[in-house]
Predict the 3D structure of the following.
Amino acid sequence: MAGPAGSTPGTPSVLRAMNDRAALDLLVAHGPLTRTRIGELTGLSKPTTSQILGRLESAGLVRTTGSQTGRPGPNAVLYEIRPDAAHVAALSADPNGITATVADITGAERGRHRIEAAAVARDVRHRTAQLVTEAVDGALARAGLGHDDLTATVIGTPGAIDPGTGRLRYAPHLPGWHSRTLRAELAEVLGTPVSIENDVNLAAVAEQYEGAAQDHDDFVLAYVDEGVGAAIVLGGVLLRGATGGAGEIGYMPLPGAPLARGGDAVAARTDAGGGFQSLVAAPAVRQLAGGTDDLSVALARDDVLDEVARRLATGLAAVVAVVDPQLVVLSGQVAKAGGDALRERVEAELTGLALPRPQLRISELSGDPILTGALRTALTEARATVFDTSTA
């Protein structure tokens, strides 16, 4: 197994760094722990555990936080991650604005700010970096922090970065995000490395971390909202595709839907065009219910619920037949408005459409799952850097 960059596997410095990281990961996962408990969980001796904690204290990564009481003998000192060891920014961009949150290295939110800005406005194309900066600056101000305090930034947005060109694809309705140099521009103004990730992929990260997919390594997240997309996780690894477009099931041709011809120009419109999206996205559900704006009211009607379930099952059957997941998680406005009644009907409709029979669950995450996924991704990136003591 390869060790930290610049080190030789098996050398004392690599082993020390691995032990340090193991202790830090335990403190992240469990919260404050005693030296004895860390030793028990890692299998390391008391002297080695003491050396680890001494190094991590000196590096400013851990601190003592009171003592454990209620046991025989002297009270044991508790250790915890220093929250101010690093901070990250997570953002969720949508057609109506940008939401930013700043958190410390433990994942505790310190500040949040939203900028309202219609993505189709003429001036947004030239102001994307400025709007992102305003959103981050607002969150930093609420946290009492500055750009120098950030270690990583992750932005969730519709579409995906094409690894070959560096351009955002599958999101023509966000014109300001298509510059090949956007990530470099954002990294320069924010002062941190910047990752731009597909919003549905980030929602899947949130489901893995604290949602319906915590106990599954093979699952599909179907995000049915104003648009439709999917995240596909196989063997615990997110499937991205050659151009970042894996999971763009909104384009998928289905019986009863016009073909999605015209590329990005058609894909920009969720209420027209063709493919799976034109059958099950929020605008289609509202149309089925006679134009009501309230999806819960629309899906309270049995005829609408039955038809949406039939359409969803038909599209999901194609995905299930190809990737055979253990689980399908239904998320987004339509899924949440339909709830278990929709899930039960989709499950019944899937019978016979595809041989694999995955579990179906409705996402129960509160708040913005895209922002949650962006935060978890940013924390993973930051910890990979900050918790690497081999370069200390």
About this structure: The longest strand covers residues 87-94. The mean pLDDT is 89. The CA atoms of residues 320 and 356 lie 7 Å apart.
